Amino acid sequence: MQKKNRVILALDVTSRADALRVVEAVKGHVDAIKINWPLILATGPDIIREMSRVKDVICDFKIADIPNTNKLIVEQAMSRGATAVICHGFTGDDSVKACVDAAKGQVFVVTEMSHPGGKQFTAPVADELAALAKSAGARGIVAPATRPERIAALRKIIGSLEIISPGVGAQGGKASDAIRAGADYIIVGRAIYDAPDPGGAAKALADEVKDGV
Ligand code: 3DU
What we know:
By secondary structure, the protein is of the alpha/beta class. It contains 10 helices and 8 strands. It has helices at 16-26, 37-43, 46-52, 67-79, 93-102, 126-136, 148-158, 175-181, 190-193, 198-212; strands spanning 7-10, 32-35, 56-63, 84-88, 107-110, 140-142, 162-166, 185-188. It has an 8-stranded parallel beta barrel with strand order 1-2-3-4-5-6-7-8, surrounded by 8 helices. Helix 1 crosses helix 10. It is globular, with a radius of gyration of 16 Å. Ligand 3DU binds next to strand 8 and helix 9.
């Protein structure tokens, strides 16, 4: 994953045709494609391989199980061409370590979630989740663009690990605020794929990120 545009597309569309249309329009303005359950369930897991031929793919399965099951899920994602996976950290260090081992370090751990409910259970333990990501050898964390001050606080805990940050656009966060607070990449879904001109929307976000640096 080359840090160029610093935008990751959250491709939460539910048909292969829409996925191809959006990716074709935005591929020059994003650095990676994040695939979540809606697209996998709608089209089947081979969509990972297909998208990986265009861009690096991050499988956002929010993996949250016992170590052995986590390992099996990560192996399935990586063998289909994923560059990285996203897991939860509340399952504990052995479960996160199982993901890290199976993905050879290419793991992002969810910390404080970006939606309002994220304040309820994830925010109080987010610092510990970030510390766990670091001690387990993960590549980085997922931190909320809706609360840039939390990105800055979590950055202090993880040092040089990467921060990928959802919550821009539809959830109310601003790309430049997230980048200024310390995010390496913003993750954007609806503000791109629901836009009348997804390519233009992705370009505008990439431009805003450049200005935000
Ligand atoms: O709100 P958007 O449409 O830009 O999509 C955000 C994406 O990021 C979506 O795939 C969602 O599952 C994911 N995500 C969050 O929104 C918040 C988190 O804390 C973690 C992941």
